[in-house]
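Lab notebook: predicted structure, single chain.

Context: the supervisor wants predicted structures on file for every construct in the current expression panel, including those that have not yet been purified. This is the next one on the list. No modifications to the sequence; it matches the entry in the shared construct table.
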Amino acid sequence: MSASLPQSLSRTTRITSLPAGAGLAVGLLFLRVSSSALLLAVHGLPKLHDIAGELARIEDPFGFGPHFSLLVAIAAEVFCPPFLMLGLFTRMACLPVLAVLVVAMGVVHRGWSLAEGQFGWLLLICFISIALCGPGKISLDAWLEVRHGKTQG
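Prediction complete. Output recorded below exactly as produced.
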């Protein structure tokens, strides 16, 4: 057995090798886009398509009324995801999403088992990760930072 790697393995290694930092940038892009798309598709767009039904169903944990609660949910679940997908004002766009998720998981659905709330918990984990890590290099925030020399997200 020779000390060198077989030609096919060596070729595979070269193909999958990425420049330093590229894996992190692609990973953050994937996390931002996939998490935001799920939030928008599963929670946001259904609220827009059936506002009357949502007003009848939505929880009002703090007594502000269903209209206010739905407005906050729509802002977080419909208007913030496109900003997050683009990586524009990323950390700021995470705040309403995180607020709605914390209220949903910690107040409204606190009696749910881990299995019942697993989607909400996973979204919370994803958006906390995005808020902590920032948008990454493949984002409009990064482009603006390079172009204008200041941090946007």
